[in-house]
Amino acid sequence: LKPGDYYFVETAAPAGYELNDSKLNFTVELQTTTKVATVAATNAEKTGSVVLNKTDSDTGKTLSGAVFDLYKKDGTKVASDLTTDAKGQIQVNDLKPGDYYFIETAAPAGYELNDSKLNFTVEFQATTKVATVAATNAEKTGSVVLNKT
Fold first, then answer.
1. pTM of the full predicted structure?
2. 76 lies in a domain?
3. Per residue in 29-43, pLDDT tens?
């Protein structure tokens, strides 16, 4: 390259990464001694999504009003107080590839709390994939007493 000011512009990102289309400027100086100009370029991994589906363990009916916290595998809290909607779902977007889990913090009215870890993985996003998690609750049971006289 002749001495002067130049720039790179990325036209295609590697699979699974966001395009970084910012100008990467550099200058080729007059070569009295050989010098190589260097430019650093970075890309962010594409983020993924997860959908949690909450249902009654007996009937399969969708359950709204269940509250969850979301954690990274290492125990770092990502989000809290996520509540299932009328379709019994929670959707979380913009998650970097990696391992995560949900923990239920409040069950829908009339249901037992299911506090088991619900593990899932957000895969490297070469093509868009949405992780899904199934969660169930058992209805609270009651008692009856018969008095025969």
1. 0.73
2. yes
3. 887 777 888 899 988
